[in-house]
Amino acid sequence: MTKNNDKKKKHSAAFRKKYYNLLMKTREQFVSQMNVRREEALNTADLDKSSISNHIADSANNEMELHLLTQDGNVLELIDLALKRLEDGEYGTCMDCSCDIGDPRLEFRPYSMYCIQCKSIREKNNGINPNVG
């Protein structure tokens, strides 16, 4: 983890291309997944309404699909923000401590906003990093 006092940095063309492609691939996967979830959540034509228990189960499944659809939409927003940070030269820099986010983390979750240390701190504190003012 390298400290980066200037949040804007010049990435190589290869770095930008690699992560742009990875972000776009991830984005396409989430859009495709969202389309499937949307169809499953809104598909009421095939619902078996012959019994109340089937209706309740279908309703619960729809609620779960809508919840997952919302989560996927949140990830799409994170991907779009990561693309903007890539364009602005801020991609790969932790939003809390300004350290570089390691390549393994970016390759696993290319829309990461925080280094592993800061993300761990946030997870232990309900999404807040008390060390950031």
Please give a handful of descriptors for the protein shown.
single chain; 133 residues; mainly alpha; flat
Can you offer a commentary on this structure?
The protein has 133 residues and is mainly alpha-helical. The chain folds into two domains: 10-89; 92-133, no CATH class. The chain contains four helices and no strands. It has helices at 13-42, 52-88, 103-108, 116-124. α1 (13-42) runs antiparallel to α2. The chain is flat.
Protein topology:
Elements: H1 13-42, H2 52-88, H3 103-108, H4 116-124
Helix pairs in contact: 1-2
Structural class: mainly alpha
- Tell me the series of helices and strands, N- to C-terminal: HHHH
The number of distinct helices, counting runs of at least 4 residues, comes to: 4
Which spans of ≥5 residues are poorly predicted at pLDDT below 50?
1-6
Oligomeric status of the shown chains?
Answer: single chain
Gap between N and C termini: 21 Å
Number of strand segments = 0
Taken from the alpha-carbon principal axes, the silhouette is: flat
Helix content: 55-70%
Cα-atom radius of gyration: 19 Å
Biggest sheet architecture: none
| Mean pLDDT figure | 85
The domain count comes to 2
Short description:
This protein has 133 residues and is mainly α. 62% of the residues lie in helices and 0% in strands.
